[in-house]
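Dear Dr. H.,

I hope your travels went smoothly. While you were away I took the liberty of generating a structure for the chain from your last submission, since the lab meeting agenda had it listed for discussion. I wanted you to have the full record in hand beforehand rather than looking at slides cold. The sequence, exactly as received, is reproduced here:
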Amino acid sequence: MKVIVSILICFLSFHLTFAQQRIVAECTVVYKVESQDASDASMQQKATKTVYIKSNNARIDLVAPAYSQTTLFNKTTATATVLRAFGDDKYMTPLNGQQWRKVNAGLDSIQMQITGDSISILDYTCKKALLQLKDGTQVIVFFTPAIIPSVREYEYMFKDIPGFVLGYEMKDKDGRKTTFSATQINLYNPVAASRFDIPAKEYRLIEMEESK
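The corresponding predicted structure, in token form, is as follows:
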């Protein structure tokens, strides 16, 4: 009898957790991007990052004072298009499925440890996870298991995170720390389909070389 009760409790707990998790197929999330030099304790805002998700499409806009970069990802075809702008110079690089995996090869086989710590971001309780990359880089991630994006592969490093990442921080080899913190999240207003259109002009095409 005790075994049966234990099984029922585990089943109900799993069912409750699953029922509370919502798959988000349309949303807009804005992040503040700040950096901190190893010799300076102050944080300086360097850019903004905006993520748009609509069904099987995702768009990531990273806008800094000197440049901007947009990544368009299609989950159905597993293809991506990267748009870069430096002043008046604009470049476009299309990536097929094989090329997308090659670009993100350094983010495969990530070791993940979910800790018992949590913080609140935009009224969502976010769990803390530690990611260990193949090159030794450690990334601290804060994600909410309450919602999960319908497309996760657009942020290849987070494709196995069991929730929506609302904050993360990482350090480069020079000790400079960069943090990404969600400042806005909108789950209700529709995202225009035109945001995922690939521009037909104004961009210089730079194709990625195929592996020999």
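Two observations you may find useful: The chain has a mean pLDDT of 87. Helices lie at 2-20, 97-103.

With kind regards,
E. W.
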